[in-house]
Amino acid sequence: MKFKQLGLLCLCGCLLASAAYGAAKSEPAKPAKAKTMAELAAKYDSKSCEECHPDVYEQWQKSIHSRSLLGTGRTAPTILTAIDMGIKKFPYSGVKEDKDLEVRHFMLCAKCHLPQIDEASDEVVREIIATIRAWQKEDNDAKREELEKKISSVNIGCMVCHNKKAIIHKWADGYPQPDTVYGSKAGKHEHPKFDKMAKAPALGESIFCGQCHGSGPNFELDEPSQCATLYGSYLFAYVPEGGHESCQQCHMKKSGLGHDMEAYRSEAMRKMAVKTEVDGRALFWRKNKKEGVVPMGIINVELLNKAGHVIPDG
Ligand code: HEC
Ligand code: HEC
Ligand code: HEC
Ligand code: HEC
Ligand code: HEC
Q: How far is the CA of 227 from the centre of ligand 3 (A)?
């Protein structure tokens, strides 16, 4: 009996000790869910980072991450198509009208286009969809721009990458904390809300981008969707061929674009994309008596994809 008690004490002691040690890294309590787009936007607002990180902010604003529900303008309409032609027509989705939409339905796209939607209530999903519908119908330029701003107010902002998605192996490295920005160092951070800095071990590695850039069907969803699969091609084609650069090396460093992660719309990326070899020669061909000598040109073009993955993706 005595031994048993001792054993129990030891076990509790160990658990307590590890809890104390891991206090700043264990899973934080879930905060109340955002009830409006404005609340969700405020929670992930990147504006407060601009003052001290102006260059990063400007680069990020140019990138498509800063308008991840609009993209080039094609994403928002495609989300509506997925809802109207897919989700509403599936017999077991539970969705007949927009008012039936819940966060779990929107996850088909939001898993990567707006992962923080899991911190919002179902009403926010309905508000986003209503805003996209209003934007599509609007003829007045000024009003359209207002709606466009509202759609882009929820996006892949600084704290989506530097907090929410920053830690990949949460059991090993700990859960992201609500008062911390994650980067390459630990210490104090001069921000009223995020006053700590901590290390995110994989932020500089391809797997970090892979969380959203897709490796195939999203099997963890009740209704798997597939959009981007570029990370899959990075892993299964580029790396086995001997490729050893990371997404960050090509897109942020070699390109000189930093946080303006871009594709072929940027000249720097176009220049890095393909190696072209062209070889041409002239030839004279005696065809027949009537037509005589026909001049011909032979051109050999060899194109080599130098990107770290398939192009184009999707
Ligand atoms: C009042 C100024 C200030 C504001 C506002 C601010 N930062 Fe910082 N931040 C700094 C300074 C200064 C450092 C560098 C600290 C050091 O090197 O010791 C830093 C460092 C960082 C780092 C770590 C960089 C690295 O090399 O790993 C990240 C990530 C970061 N900030 C993100 C943000 C985000 C996201 C926001 C907005 C939510 C923000 N910061 C707002 C001043 C600020
Ligand atoms: C939280 C999810 C998420 C993370 C993390 C993420 N991305 Fe993205 N990224 C997206 C989404 C979603 C889009 C497309 C938005 C659209 O067009 O609608 C995108 C777009 C891009 C584009 C532009 C593609 C184009 O066609 O113009 C590039 C380049 C890119 N990301 C690179 C990166 C790199 C490099 C990393 C890692 C450092 C990264 N992304 C991390 C979600 C993410
Ligand atoms: C696995 C993550 C992921 C999921 C899930 C996902 N997307 Fe994407 N999507 C991306 C990324 C990353 C890009 C941009 C880069 C690329 O094409 O490689 C993108 C690009 C797009 C584009 C082209 C964007 C443009 O600006 O031209 C459209 C349209 C799109 N997604 C719509 C959707 C819709 C609709 C859904 C839901 C049915 C969805 N996506 C689900 C990650 C995802
Ligand atoms: C799509 C993901 C993503 C978004 C969005 C993002 N970052 Fe980063 N950030 C990174 C990655 C990845 C690195 C590290 C690059 C490396 O180590 O190779 C980084 C590095 C940094 C650094 C340290 C080094 C540097 O480049 O200056 C700071 C500071 C920083 N980010 C601040 C910000 C701020 C502020 C915002 C919003 C305006 C922001 N980041 C948005 C992914 C992101
Ligand atoms: C060896 C350099 C290199 C590496 C490594 C690399 N990329 Fe790229 N990537 C490029 C170049 C160059 C382009 C421009 C070609 C294009 O857009 O078609 C590009 C284009 C893209 C695009 C747009 C694809 C499209 O449909 O046009 C996305 C998204 C992207 N990269 C994300 C990533 C992510 C995420 C990783 C890591 C998993 C990564 N890249 C690794 C060089 C690289």
A: 5
99-144 residue pLDDT tens: 999 999 999 999 999 999 999 999 999 999 999 999 999 999 999 9
Share of the chain above pLDDT 90, in %: 87
What mean pLDDT is predicted for residues 57-76? Answer: 97
Question: Over the stretch 203-215, which tens digit does the pLDDT of each residue have?
Answer: 999 999 999 999 9
- Residue 284's nearest CA partner among 276, 295, 275 is 295
CA of 108 relative to ligand 3 center, distance in Å: 10
Q: Residue 214: CB within 6 Å of ligand 5?
A: no
Q: Which residues of 2-16 are buried (b: 16+ CB within 10 A; e: fewer)?
A: eeeeeeeeeeeeeee
Mutate to test the pocket of ligand 2, among 117, 209, 255 (most ligand atoms within 8 A of CB): 209
Tell me the C-alpha distance between 177 and 167, whole Å. Answer: 10
Cα 267 to middle of ligand 4, angstroms: 22
Distance from the alpha carbon of residue 194 to the mean position of ligand 1, in angstroms: 9
Nearest ligand by distance to the CA of 187 = 1
pLDDT at 153: 98
The CA distance from 200 to 174, in Å, is 10
145-162 residue pLDDT tens? 999 999 999 999 999 999
Taking the C-alpha atoms of residue 269 and residue 114, their distance in angstroms, rounded to an integer, is 25
Q: At 19, is the pLDDT very low, low, confident or very high (cuts 50, 70, 90)? A: very low
**Which residues have a Cβ under 8 Å from the Cβ of 32 and sit 6 or more positions away?**
none
Residue nearest to atom 12 of ligand 2 (CA): 113
| Residue bearing the CA closest to ligand 4, atom 16 | 204
Q: Which residue has the tokens 């994650």?
A: 182
CB 157 within 8 A of CB 130: no
